[in-house]
Amino acid sequence: MAGAGGAAARSRFAVVGGGIAGVTCAEKLATEFPSEDIFLMTASPVIKAVTNFKQVSKTLEEFDVEEQPSSILEKRYPNIKVIQSGVKQLKSDEHKIFTEDGKEYVYEKLCLCAGAKPKLIFEGNPYVLGIRDTDSAQAFQKNLAQAERIVVVGNGGIALELVYEIQGCEVIWAIKDKAIGNTFFDAGAAEFLIPKLTAENRETPIECKRTKYTVEGSQEKERPTAASDKLGSALGPDWHEGLHLKGTKEFSHKVHIEILCEVKNIHLQQEFIQLQRTSLTFPKEEKNVEPDQVLWPVYVELTNGKIYGCDFIVSATGVVPNVKPFLDGNNFAVGEDGGLKVDEHMHTSVPDVYAAGDICTAAWEPSPVWHQMRLWTQARQMGWYAAKCMAADTLGESIEMDFSFELFAHVTKFFNYKVVVLGKYNAQGLGSEHELMLRCTKGQEYVKVVMQNGRMVGAVLIGETDLEETFENLILNQMDLSAYGEDLLNPDVDIEDYFD
Ligand SMILES: Cc1cc2nc3c(=O)[nH]c(=O)nc-3n(C[C@H](O)[C@H](O)[C@H](O)COP(=O)(O)OP(=O)(O)OC[C@H]3O[C@@H](n4cnc5c(N)ncnc54)[C@H](O)[C@@H]3O)c2cc1C
Ligand SMILES: NC(=O)C1=CN([C@@H]2O[C@H](COP(=O)(O)OP(=O)(O)OC[C@H]3O[C@@H](n4cnc5c(N)ncnc54)[C@H](O)[C@@H]3O)[C@@H](O)[C@H]2O)C=CC1
């Protein structure tokens, strides 16, 4: 193949990234062009493959994500050539890729699927950890095994999962918002979920059949172990189930929530003691903590004036697309969130370069009930559709937007409840032009629909509601439901029979 200083290897199609988006894209290209070699360049030694894919309804899908050695992918698709080396530089004007191992590759069409990395608060502070891939999850588990108290910052998917799963360690959960889980829920749903978080006796988590990520916990308390700076792929479903997320204490769960605050500062122990002695304005006491004056390795100062000592901090504060430094020097249009802007054909602003998954920012005019969220369902759909678009452009064919972008649909699990979110489930972008309808049975189900001009535009379904398919249809067909009024959520009306 390509040698340092030797002739560059050539392929019609190249894909960068061995996560869900990249692997799905390479697989689809390999199927569309069985006689072409597809280069898949990836910085991680393993790739992520989608297995047990199940189309639950028109737009809802469920699947497992498996970490596999790249040889398995090459066996399944003999025309995929995995190049296990990070991309150091892209020279898009020459259609060339330079890898860390000193080789170069020439492509005709390229799809960038390099994912994203955690957007950390106080980046560089050794006491602040992020969770993204197997390495960082293992580093987290190792540190937790020695911890008595940690501070979790952020209010999205990772924070929701962590605060529920962690045992034997006190968790101070600091959120900017009034209610928990702001990326998925409104205050009503948060209220429904809170008892599950604070319950004394939780259900035992279901044992995970596949052991996924385990490490031995060290007993010595020291500075947090950081994950390596290798860029791995994002974790898959149920990533925490194989991990023993347990601290040093005997109690089961202990979560304290601090709302409407951010982290103002982080002080190391010595600095904290010094500040207490010398600064007139610095709080003299660590508040809300037992008066035994435990000394913690690190102290978190919140914008609400409170200070908490802890062993380390988890920053679950979103992601930033991986565009640096390997894309420097190319003229990519970038969205506000730092992602590569792509049009309705997943094409970036640079000729012959497409992008999919967490690295990209959907810059097309979306369907009124779809929006981008960096999720593995969207990574799979985008990777698949990008390959279709690359194929269509190569063959001079036209292509229509894939149906999966018609409606935002996500199924997941929080606090052991099934959670389905559809369309504008939090009335995103609707202003005051909408109405909400609710149905809630404590400890069992929470159903919220968002209505606009008599039509359903979004829904949150928590628990086993069995309503997802009917509501998906109602949002897609935009039927005028004004005549049904409150009956829409009446548990005595069999709504599925009504509309199916
Ligand atoms: C802890 C956690 C839990 C999550 N839970 C859920 C969930 O329950 N449901 C859900 O839908 N989503 C979840 N997500 C989000 C989901 O995992 C991601 O949106 C999705 O996996 C992104 O896939 P991707 O292929 O775009 O990127 P990634 O999986 O990040 O893959 C990027 C790939 O690019 C490679 N790469 C990066 N830079 C280079 C380079 N310079 N050269 C070569 N290769 C490079 C990396 O090695 C990697 O293989 C979770 C994420 C995390 C971190
Ligand atoms: N079950 C699921 O669907 C899950 C999905 N994910 C996905 O993985 C990715 C990473 O997850 P998260 O880090 O949880 O990101 P996220 O985007 O879900 O949430 C980020 C949270 O951090 C908050 N935040 C941002 N900056 C902050 C700051 N400076 N101080 C305090 N709070 C701040 C935001 O308000 C938001 O609540 C996301 O794309 C997420 O959608 C992760 C876990 C589970």
Automatic annotation (TrEMBL):
Source domain of life: Eukaryota
Molecular functions per Gene Ontology: oxidoreductase activity
Cofactor(s) for this UniProt protein: FAD
Domain FAD/NAD(P)-binding: 13-201, 287-383
Protein's name in the database: Pyridine nucleotide-disulfide oxidoreductase domain-containing protein 1
Family named by the database record: Belongs to the class-I pyridine nucleotide-disulfide oxidoreductase family. PYROXD1 subfamily.
Cross-referenced PANTHER family: PYRIDINE NUCLEOTIDE-DISULFIDE OXIDOREDUCTASE DOMAIN-CONTAINING, PYRIDINE NUCLEOTIDE-DISULFIDE OXIDOREDUCTASE DOMAIN-CONTAINING PROTEIN 1
This protein's record includes keyword Zinc: no
Record SUPFAM superfamilies: FAD/NAD(P)-binding domain, NAD(P)-binding Rossmann-fold domains
Alphabetical keyword list: FAD, Flavoprotein, Oxidoreductase
NADH-rubredoxin oxidoreductase C-terminal domain sequence ranges: 413-478
Record's function text: Probable FAD-dependent oxidoreductase; involved in the cellular oxidative stress response. Required for normal sarcomere structure and muscle fiber integrity.
One of the Pfam families matching this protein, by short name: Pyr_redox_2
